Amino acid sequence: MTPDDLREAAAALAAQALGLPELARARTVAAYVSVGAEPGTGALLDALCARGVRVLLPALLPDGDLDWGAYTGAAGGEGSLARVRHGGRMELLEPAGERLGREAVTEADAVLLPGLAVDGRGLRLGRGGGSYDRVLARLERAGARPALVVLLYAGEVVDRVPAEPHDRPVDAVVTPEGVRRFRTP
């Protein structure tokens, strides 16, 4: 995809996601900053902040788990995000401010999840690090029931992904072209 294609896809993804009732009524959304070829999340994050939504972004911990920090939006200036290189692995944009702890995600009304694919059962295939599996387990242990939404390109919605016993279905997948629900809001 060209840079223009990526920008258009990110804008379309944001428009589709912002139309979700789960995000319209959310006061706190746990999200992420897209990397590499992932569908762009910047426009969506800034639109949520503009609505007055508290946006939590992850910070990768050495053990692969996630801590969380608040994102204040583009208006928050460059100090809102920091580039962090994790060993020889990827470089991520993470919240630059105070860390709120691993449990902060349990306060979210909706959790936006990255993934490589989602299948017809609503099962998400991640990158294999287990960070978001830990998040989903933490939500379950806390009795938290946020809306779980994966952001993908249409070609990443597939018939079947490999599944493990701990995998849990998501509520919806959003692509630049539309929304597919696996559970009614």
Automatic annotation (TrEMBL):
Substrates-to-products reaction catalysed: (6S)-5-formyl-5,6,7,8-tetrahydrofolate + ATP = (6R)-5,10-methenyltetrahydrofolate + ADP + phosphate
EC number: 6.3.3.2
Biological-process GO terms, alphabetical: folic acid-containing compound biosynthetic process; tetrahydrofolate interconversion
Entry binding sites for substrate: 33, 38
Binding site for ATP: 124-132
Keyword hit for Magnesium: yes
Keywords: ATP-binding, Magnesium, Metal-binding, Nucleotide-binding
Cofactor: Mg(2+)
Keyword Nucleotide-binding: yes
Pfam families according to UniProt: 5-FTHF_cyc-lig (PF01812)
Gene Ontology MF terms in the entry: 5-formyltetrahydrofolate cyclo-ligase activity; ATP binding; metal ion binding
Family in the record: Belongs to the 5-formyltetrahydrofolate cyclo-ligase family.
Protein name per its UniProtKB record: 5-formyltetrahydrofolate cyclo-ligase
